[in-house]
Amino acid sequence: MTSTAQPPQVHDWLRQQGWYSGRDIGDEADALVSVRLQDASAQGYPLEAVDAAVRVIRAYGGLKLAHPRASDSAFEMDPTGGYDGDAGEIAEMASGLGKKLFPVGFESSEYGILLVDETGRWFLLHHTGGYFLGEDDQDAFARFITNADTPDVEDYFV
User: Fold this and answer.
1) pLDDT at residue 91 tops 50
2) Amino acid 39: pLDDT
3) What is the chain's mean pLDDT, rounded?
4) Contact 106, 81 (CB under 8 A)
5) Which of 24, 27, 55, 90 makes the best surface tag, with the fewest CB within 10 Å?
6) Got the DSSP string for the chain?
7) What distance in Å separates the CA atoms of residue 74 and residue 1, rounded to the nearest whole number?
8) pLDDT at 4
9) How is the chain split into domains, by residue range?
10) Contact 69, 144 (CB under 8 A)
11) Does residue 5 carry a pLDDT above 90?
């Protein structure tokens, strides 16, 4: 599921949000991915559901992962959240990274789209630009709950 060990702080926070080890929403994840794929195609920018993103959706899909100290901020783990034209922006970011990206959710306070690339790295597509969130889900969650810096996505372009 992840490429790094789950820090105790992240594990405890996830469990408080309804996650448990071995969680897999199965067919529901497949349905969410299908909706997102159809939406991107309708926008004229087909996306590909990368394995790393599908694993994230299966493990965390449907959860609202609330920030422990900012009540208006949460990672809403629903890949169908987005806006008109977002598929083109996702494709543009993916091109810069040289890696395929797929949405796994959105950030609730400003509706930035949470994206995972084919290597498992997390990014945010925000109205102010793109940002790096973490090397994998555990890193992204740890950075989220500790308010760590989020470098510009351009720092990761090839």
Assistant:
1) yes
2) 97
3) 95
4) yes
5) 27
6) --SS---HHHHHHHHHTT--TT---THHHHHHHHHHHHHHHHHT------HHHHHHHHHHTT-EEE-SS-TT-EEE--TT---TTHHHHHHHHHHHHTS-EEEEEEETTT-PEEEEETTS-EEEEETTEEEEEESSHHHHHHHHHHT----BGGGG--
7) 21
8) 58
9) 8-148
10) no
11) no
Q: Which long-range contacts (CB under 8 A, 24 or more apart) does 23-28 make?
A: 23/58, 23/59, 23/60, 24/58, 24/59, 25/57, 25/58, 25/61, 25/62, 26/58, 28/61, 28/62
The answer on pLDDT for 97 being more than 90 is yes
For residue 124, the one-letter residue type is L
Chain Cα centroid distance, residue 94: 14
| pLDDT higher than 60, residue 108 | yes
The token pair that represents 73 in the structure block:
């901020």
pLDDT mean over 23-41 = 98
Q: Give pLDDT, residue 6.
A: 72
Identity of residue 2: T
